[in-house]
Design a protein that fits this description.
Length: about 575
């Protein structure tokens, strides 16, 4: 009797462990994003501060791109040498990106030090830009791996000093060297290096766009490595994978703003669908977890339940503003803030919560309070976007835009917190200058953080896709229980989408009424497809299944075992890290 009992228990355990490692989403679901033939000659660049941030920012997107044979370049700004030389972390990045499909030749190390501090509370971003920093390891120059030197050494045969100026120049140089069609870059969040790299990246972009001979206008998206990802919601073990969620509680950078960066509104985020291999109901059957595991020294698997989501989110930054080629004169204040590509700057990278700066503020005794944008050749102007100051106690209440052809339009009040105020009018031709006059201000810091001027109010994107939503989450293989009688279906669309049609691809005990699906008592499976009306090659397809009580019990038991395996792995690696290196597995 004992033998048979042990045999049964062994078989059950083997079966459950099989479920732990084989719980990927299955079925006939797919999406057309990245599959168009037009992507064949495109290059996408990912720019992040540290090794592991590539996954926090865009891990699933990288895999989606490489699965579709799209050229991906991943750029790391630092060597992450906070505890030691960082060599291990560089090797870990090569391994993790190999899992995601990026070959070593397409991985770039800029080679700057982690957390370059002038003092214990001042990051080198806020210091003199030519000041040479000594790293925690006592180094002052860039480096990477002996077999894979840093970017500047590959180009010139020389290392560079750790200065703010050199890092900005290398970010600019790596972009102009590869000229990617799309850039995904880390944005301003809680980590001081993320903040600095984000702002230096924007300075580099401004330098590129303001060059007199510039003809390069990449499609650019910025996203958070922490908010919604590394410090996201621990919701992995829900029945259906949820999308990235806003930071909550202690992870909120500043509750006065919608996101970690004041100009961004959560509802205006770009949501990208994730690759099939990133969809699973246990961590150990998830490809992103495997890539996170490669970053051994960081212990980042501990945050996998936050990082792995059903979407990846970004905010688009348009690069075609006429302001970057304009000569700007102001009646008072600092004109450089008006076209530096930075929607907000930061005088103290180290402060938490962050305080923001970078505002053109006219003098209080300036009776005109004007900024004039002059163009060296006639332009068409149809839209102006104004970003006010970040300070919530100050705001531009009224102002006027005047074009050189005599056209004028009033604006105000501007949105608070440096959010975009969009002013659109009929196209005005043969424009040589544009003047912004501020007539009524509130508070002592009222002004403008940035001005964008466009010849059109439409900004075509290389990204054109649709995605079916269930309860505001991207759906793929969606499981329901017998209690679910109906579900609302919505659609997320991005790019040139004129409308869509939604229809079933199979017959079963369900009915599709407009954007709602109703299930009968014998329902098992529904395959639902959405297509763009103007292009049926743009599509999304999902599978909805009813899960039985037994299958649900097996799944939940497998998830419990997965949690145990995950926890044991994390503890074992932590102990090993302390034993071999003497500092915590983070």
């Amino acid at each position: 009797m004992t033998f048979y009992l042990l045999l049964v228990i062994t078989i059950v355990l083997i079966f459950l462990f099989y479920q732990v490692y084989n719980s990927a989403y299955s079925g006939d679901f797919s999406n057309s994003l990245w599959t168009e033939s037009s992507w064949a000659d495109k290059t996408v660049m990912i720019i992040v501060p540290h090794q592991d941030d590539e996954i926090n920012l865009a891990g699933s997107t990288i895999k989606n791109l490489t699965d579709n044979h799209i050229h991906v370049i991943v750029v790391f700004a630092t060597t992450s040498d906070y505890h030691d030389s960082g060599i291990d972390r560089l090797h870990e990045a090569l391994t993790a990106l190999k899992i995601l499909g990026v070959p070593e030749k397409d991985i770039v190390f800029l080679g700057y030090c982690n957390m370059p501090m002038v003092t214990k509370t001042q990051h080198f971003y806020n210091a003199d830009e030519t000041l040479v920093i000594t790293s925690d390891q006592g180094l002052t120059q860039t480096y990477a791996l002996p077999e894979k030197p840093e970017f500047c050494f590959n180009l010139t045969g020389q290392h560079k000093n750790y200065t703010k100026k050199n890092l900005r120049e290398d970010i600019q140089s790596v972009i102009t060297h590869y000229k990617p069609d799309i850039i995904f870059a880390a944005d301003f969040d809680r980590h001081i290096d993320h903040r600095a790299i984000s702002l230096l990246f924007e300075e580099a972009i401004a330098n590129i766009l303001s060059n007199n001979d510039n003809t390069y206008y990449p499609e650019l998206y910025k996203g958070f490595c922490y908010n919604g990802s590394y410090l996201g919601k621990k919701d992995f073990y829900e029945l259906n994978l949820a999308g990235e969620a806003k930071a909550e509680g202690e992870f909120i950078n500043d509750p006065n703003y919608d996101t970690d960066f004041p100009p961004y509104l959560w509802d205006e985020r770009l949501r990208l669908p994730v690759v099939r291999e990133a969809l699973s109901r246990t961590l150990n059957s998830n490809l992103i977890y495997q890539a996170l595991r490669a970053h051994f020294s960081q212990g980042i698997i501990h945050n996998a339940k936050r990082i792995i989501n059903s979407d990846q989110i970004f905010w688009r930054r348009i690069t075609t503003s006429l302001s970057y080629q304009a000569k700007i004169t102001v009646t008072s204040g600092n004109a450089k803030y008006l076209n530096d590509f930075k929607l907000a700057d930061c005088d103290d990278i180290y402060a938490l919560p962050a305080s923001f700066s970078g505002t053109w503020i006219p003098d209080t005794n300036d009776s005109e309070k004007k900024a004039v944008f002059s163009f060296n050749k006639p332009q068409i102007v149809t839209q102006v976007i104004l970003y006010g100051n970040s300070n919530l106690d100050s705001r531009v209440l009224e102002g006027t835009i005047t074009l050189s052809n005599g056209f004028t339009t009033k604006f105000g009040p501007l949105k608070q917190g440096s959010k975009a105020t969009v002013i659109t009018f009929k196209p005005q031709n043969n424009i040589f200058s544009l003047t912004i006059s501020l007539s009524k201000l509130q508070g002592t810091n009222a002004g403008l953080n940035e001005v964008e001027i466009y010849a059109t109010d439409k900004f075509p994107s290389l990204l054109n896709f649709i995605k079916i939503l269930i309860e505001d989450n991207f759906a793929y293989e969606y499981l329901i229980t017998a209690k679910t009688k109906e579900l609302p279906l919505n659609l997320y669309a991005y790019g040139d989408i004129k409308g869509y049609k939604l229809f079933p691809l199979n017959t079963d005990d369900f009915k599709l009424y407009d954007n709602k699906i109703v299930f009968g008592s014998s329902f098992k499976t529904a395959i639902i497809r959405a297509e763009a009306e103007n292009n049926n090659a743009i599509y999304d397809q999902i599978v909805i299944r009813k899960i039985s009580t037994l299958r649900l019990l097996i799944l939940k038991t497998a998830q419990i075992m997965d949690m145990i395996v995950h926890r044991i792995e994390h503890i074992a690696k932590h102990k090993y890290q302390m034993w071999t290196k003497g500092y915590p597995y983070e």
